[in-house]
């Protein structure tokens, strides 16, 4: 009995349900145990004759001794599992398979893109260019590091999640880990290409970096292959592949110099993980002893299963440690290692519990308990090692604990406001902590022999230094993690875009990601600067500032990501985005706390640091000037003249706002808030200097280049003076003299800012034009205006000519303000010259005035034009520096209208004695203003639909024609007032026509862009108008409307077929086809109204309208699908929907045709008869052609005599058929089908008669015969 039980125990450990090799006490290599699960949820019938797994013998029969166990077998069999033993894949496993396949494709694409690095634009050698290189390298390294963190964390997550029973595995979470790996690898490849290019530019070897990245991609691809749910390979392969991912990750990080853990720490981490495995191996051996002594087979199996699970979890811990060791600084990697440790702890508890249930032997249970305690201790040591690194790995100073207590208790006091008891308790703790800190500092002071050093130690600066160091260190770590979390969230958002069903939510998420992506570089630079200069207040404050600026956009991105998660159809992508958003929210919370504490500790250093920053910026400007003189100043990547000019103007406004804030705080003596204002001003000045450098590097004008750099340097000099005066004012709050000096310096700085903006290319030309207008306008201040000696007609013609030129120049200024600086400079210079010419002509016109009153009116109008012109130039100048401002656009448009109106007023007054003249001039100017609208038709000017625009164009074209005729008639007959009225009317109609054409153009552009809302509305309107047709008048018959509807319906069918074809070949053409379909249906619905009214009865009319209405509803569905497919050309699901909609439309077209045929059955017969007649006429034409040419030959040996009797006979038959058919037609009154039959028979008989005559006639036949026949028919 005992021998049988021992045999069952041996077979249970070495075969059957478990295939296990227990770890040896000393870990020379990883030994992995794999448990095979094959649980079926239902009874299945089938053959049990499955192929066996054949194994070689292990040395023949063995004998077993009581109380002993044979040695462990080292024979391992892998890759021989038969697929018949595997259950079918569940839906969750199938979904994971799809996720893995798509991720592998993404990984392969990323690997292929790493064949070569990016191409960098030419860069200069000044400080800004060098800083750009350094910052880009730092940013790329940060992004790569954070993405590698995510890859290793995802790999470790896959190892942990796939450890247990497949039936209990969370495959959605596994898919989330897979998408995390692939999406971050895709983004990482982009950063690697840029970093490799930067390394090559600085003399490094970028190819080695590309090779390391390709190795990582290859390792990830291999791991994903082994992770397939249908894969039958041993789990050892997955763990080995995961370990390779960790190894290649570490190699990649070492290539970029981002190995943030020393080799000793990683080695210790691995040793501690192996110590856990060794301790677990001892526990497994003790559990084996319990299993040997257990007689109950069920208890025995539970012990075996628990021991095996314990061995499995420890082997996974070792594999997980190998994966995350290179990136253990990442919190997500630490979490995965901790999760693996929890699995070990859980398996240990299970092993102990199973052993206690299986035996009451105190000795065995004690051995199991001691072994379990060893595992627990090893785990604790591993976790403590991880925790030590997470906290910084080194003590924070002798006074750190007391400082922490003071800061924490202070926060608690503020949060306890209202609770008197709690506030008293916290105050006592604060007093004790303060006492401890003071005593500690006193002890340090007493140990100093130098009295001066002792005094310094007792100062408050000691406390500030200790607190600052800790707070800044915490802020640095929080900022680093926040930047990494944001980078991973952006990658998750980009990966989820393809499966997001709500484009609005996706667009908001993309926009928030863009804003955060712009803030990440500043945060990374703050972290790097704090790391490289730990004792620099400037670096510390830059980190604090970047951290606080990052909080708001980061929070908005978290909100947008959480709102987007429910709209993502792919569960794995949704889970990835949700987890990333959660991690980012946690990182932001830590960053907010840490940055605020650091801000409180470093606040008094802000104003001094702002002054240092300004002095450093002055050095940068000097270097830029030197590079410009040498011709080496190059724009940085992404910099253009327009962008940098706008940035300079925007930052000028921001600096002005910061100045006002600084003045207010300094005059009140508030040092903390004044420091914050000074910091903000210095940061904005940094952006202003960068923009000024970009302008200087982008312009081709040497004078403009020097001017903008000089003005920027002047701004920095005035800024330094302002900060110094602010410090003095803070020290003497309320002192009138210091405040007066502060106000004077602030005014000087404001003037320097204005000069800086005015130095921009284009701005100087605008200022020159403004001065030209001002100088020319001085002539209007004279008391008298002598006559020029020219006639009124000459002066009037001259004034009209220069007025047209000035009006044209005003329009050009408006257009140029939205263009380049060169365009603005050219347009404003021309405007200034045209204004001078116009003013000269106006002054001459004033000199010819018959009365003083008339002269005064002319001069007054000229002054108004001068003022309007100046406002126009000022508005154009403002808009050129801030082209996105809607208010400035409105101001410019209003100024341009004011110039035109004032010119019209002057011309009207000067030509009021010439009837009709002023109307013509006004009309021409109105048409000229409309011309500008037509040259740039990008904005809607009315709410008319496409078809309403067409109708309006047709109606107004008639009025325009009548007006043109009136102009010609009245001009010939010297009816000058009527002539003038016609010309006003004409310009109005042409303006309206231009507006209507513009609306139609916008409708076509909308259809080409996939916007189909207007088309759907048009179709619905056509359906509604068709239903409301009781009061219509009609001139045609049912046959007329029926014939038109048949043609239109067929045109719809052809258009639908073209849409199906274009959906596969060229989806961009669907917009035009949808517009064509809309037009055709509108025509069909319009004809249907009249067809229904002229039908034989109301039932037929209602049926026709019903079928047309149903066709319209299907057309709206097809148009909608066409617009959707045009926006997403590769969406196969939308293509299928479009084809189905097209099929429905075609079906409804056939229904419409059927209803029309039922309305008048003879129509189709008439069509058939007409077709037959056309065929006969064509045959006659051909026969006559051959007869005329003399090439008409007889068939066989026929003679004329053979057919001589046929014409009379055919004629008799024709006559009989005519008579019979006519009688039947008149007898059956109203039956069009019989009439058609009569036509068909008549045509056939007549054609036969003529063919016989022509064919057998010996003389040529006149060619008019078939035409006569056609006319008769």
Gist of the model:
With 1273 residues, this protein is mostly helical. The chain is built from 39 helices and two strands. Strands 1-2 form a two-stranded antiparallel ribbon.
Structural account:
This protein is an all-alpha fold and 1273 residues long. 77% of the residues lie in helices and 0% in strands. It is built from 39 helices and two strands. A two-stranded antiparallel ribbon has the order 1-2. Helix 3 packs antiparallel against helix 8 (297-324), helix 21 runs antiparallel to helix 22 (736-758) and helix 36 (1162-1189) packs parallel to helix 38 (1232-1256). The relative contact order is 0.04. The model is unreliable at 1-60, 64-69, 72-84, 393-400, 1221-1238 and 1249-1273 (pLDDT under 50). Residues 581-634 form a coiled coil. InterPro entries: Alpha-catenin/vinculin-like_sf (IPR036723), I/LWEQ_dom_sf (IPR035964), ILWEQ_dom (IPR002558), Talin_cent (IPR015224), Talin_cent_sf (IPR036476), Talin_IBS2B (IPR054082), Talin_R4 (IPR049108), TLN1-like_RS (IPR054060). It is found in: Cytoplasm.
